[in-house]
# Entry
Amino acid sequence: MSGPQLFEPKVVGFLCNWCAYAGADKAGASQLPVPHNLVTVRLMCTGRMDPQFVVKAFAEGADGVLILGCHPGDCHYKEQNYRAIQRHRLFLRMLDQLGIERERCRMDFVGAAEGEKFVRVATETVDIIRRLGPLNKLGGPIG
Amino acid sequence: MRTGVYFCHCGGIITELLDSGALGRGAITAGAAYFKEVELACSEEGRGWIAADLRLELPDRVVIAACSPREHEETFRKVMAEAGLNPFLAQLVNIREHAAWVTEGAGAATEKALHQIKGAIARVAEQEPLERQVIEVSTDTLVVGGGPAGLKAALTLAEAGRKVVLIEKAPILGGMPLRYEEVFPSMECGPCLLEPFIAGALHGPFSENIEVMLTSEVVGVKGSFGNFEVKIRKNPRFVDLSLCVGCAACIEACPARAPNPLNNGMGERRAMDFVFFGGLPNAPYLDQVACTRFAGGDGCRACLDACPVEGAVVLEDQPKALEVAVGAIILAVGAETYDASLLHALGYGTIPGVVTALEMERMFASNGPTQGMPELPDGSTPGRIAFIHCAGSLDEAHKPYCSGICCMDAFKLSHLASHKIENVQSAHYHRTLVMPGKTEAALYRKVAERARFIHFDGPGVLSVSKSPAGKPHVVLPGGAAEYDMVVLMTPLTPSPSVAELAAIADVPADQLGFFEELHGRVDATSTRKRGIFIAGTCQGPMDLAQAMNQGLAAAGSALASLVPGRKVELPAEYAVVDAQRCSGCRACVGVCPYGAVSFDASSDAAVVNPALCVACGTCVAACPASAIRGRNFTDEQLFAEIRGVLS
# Structure
């Protein structure tokens, strides 16, 4: 017997090298379960995070994006995650105008030792986007 | 384009979780030319096998599907180089921590790993060969500040054979501890502790490696790591150090008097005088402001006439502009103590008998204004002394931090008082007591045997008023007590030189006005600016021991970063501006905390200095014209990776 087929979203995680990627590595070393729906892209810093990357991910079929950096104050590059936070806030307003739910582009902070937090944030994000359903509700081409 | 994929079994722990056959088929479908499996890629055998296979296959691009690039990116770049391929044409994709170990079910794990591999195959196609730029550097170092940290740094570098330029604003070397005849916790003499370092810099076995410039300051810094050009102004001393024999004949002849800065203005010095007798180098200096020739224009030349060595007194001495070329700079410009007259409730400057810790220090010094015995304004010896701890520290209205050294300094002064003044009664008013370290608490225990300790809460609770007898009266909500002398334990505060040098050398100061360290816990002597280091109390309040250690640490960093005969290899990953596309908006300049991006007026475009760029990519993302390329993290590479992981 099987229940109704649940929608399985695609989520791209953009992880900074020093904290978030290391946190994800920690989750890996601890063999904690991470949703299979999340694929990762490594950046040296969330300061490199260009809003175009989110748009590109959506255009290529992602239903959600997760941007993970160092905790505010802990940035390997002094303060560049603050630049990423600023850009993310502006970008959320643009998503509003496009009629895309803000939850599809989440920014959070994961320290190098926070394997469990990485798993929690990843799981939460995938769950939220699963509930939101596909980004492309009409099924036609995007972009 | 031929892309080869190497799949690492990680000794079997990846293959038992992933279906390598499915991965191989998926990689070929995604455009890989071949997919090969290796038992343990990072082992010596594995690396050798891959290098040999690369030489055979000669792929244009390489993907290694294995573990975290945080651990092994550099390992496989070396394998690429060994095979004669450009290291930046490979991409390590982490299918272990990010897929195999974290995904439930072999099917799902394989699928996820394949997405990551497809991302790498797409990305690597956009990757380009990169070269690491190699620059010639100077290994000479400029040390600014001749106090404990600067001396330790200069001597360490000189001992290692490095050329050092040591500049000091004052006419003698030694810095702040010269004023402390006793240093906690062991009551050693400050000038005596420093003497071997000062003499070492001036005349020691490695002194030929140290060029000492006194009465000098930095006025300009250009260039970057490995190649700084520093402009120095040498202020006139009016005494030629190469000729003066330190006989003091000029001092005896000098008719002008001025308050003595060594003693916080207590006592006098002559316009031509030693800083203090015994200071090194052993030569006087002329204070232009106090001299009647310069300030009064009376044509006095008593010092010149008295001098037995022709040419040693130079009344026509002028400021000199000098320039030095160095590879690294160590800033060790020290600190001051907080201005007690700003503590309005504590009576400094208005109530006789209220003094600062530094003034008390000088009164205890045998070469101080009272020859070692504290005196009240009426010349009597204080019998009742109160020490007010945290006078201006842990106080948002003054200095929010704990200066860390004042409690120990108070115990020391209290201990000295009990030795020098018969039947002295001492009281310590404190909010908290700080005495970290393995030897420090012993001094406190000694003091606590006979001094009273009175606790008070918070800043603003305690005040000092004038008693009817004209004496200082320490007032707390619970009561008041009269004393002969009240000593304010004021915190260390940044020297004004910090703000000046921060502007000149473009090194940031923190919110408190100290130099901002790269990281307070793990790298407190580096700054954001590569090649510029900080040491001692210009980084934060600290005692002599810590300042010495920081001097040593900064010298160590300078030694490690610049090695004779070794050219400096700059990271291949840095940002590059396309001047044609740059609109000159300078958004990039503002977002770089490392001073790596600047605006070049001649080309009307931003430029990135690869020697300073740390490749965070923030300017790349900030550029509205997409005129900046983040090498090895370009838009094209990241777009391709995004497309790949989602395909």
Q: What stands out?
A: Residues 106-126 of chain B form the longest helix (21 residues).
